[in-house]
Amino acid sequence: MQTLNSALKSKRRRLPISLTPLIDVVFILLVFFMLASSFQKTRSVELIPPKEGKATSSQSEDLPITITVDGKDQYLSGDRIYSLEDLNSFLDMNREKNILIKTGKNAALQHVVSLLDLTATLSLLKVALLPFEETSQ
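Given the sequence above, the corresponding structure tokens read:
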């Protein structure tokens, strides 16, 4: 007489495990991630903090160019308003001067990054970012 346990063992057969479907799924995932990812070099602008000490030059020719980024995709320098394209030629003519970048109250980060990217494209080395200061008017 057969017991219940031995009857179940005789009915159950060991099925061979096939690795082919697993390999197919892994291959499809590999192809998907290769096509979905992008291998793009990110651009960056290196910011070097100023050294401690006082400025020694007091000549009027060495005054820096101050560019204020406002919230309207405009760049202010002195009493003139520039677009990014106009600023490109202006900075190209004044390569030897120091450049100070200030942000206005409603300035978008993208506009500041676009200006920094422009200075990096022109290979300008004397660029400084000034912290935002709320002015009372």
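Residues 20-36 form the longest helix (17 residues). Try to locate this feature in the token string yourself.
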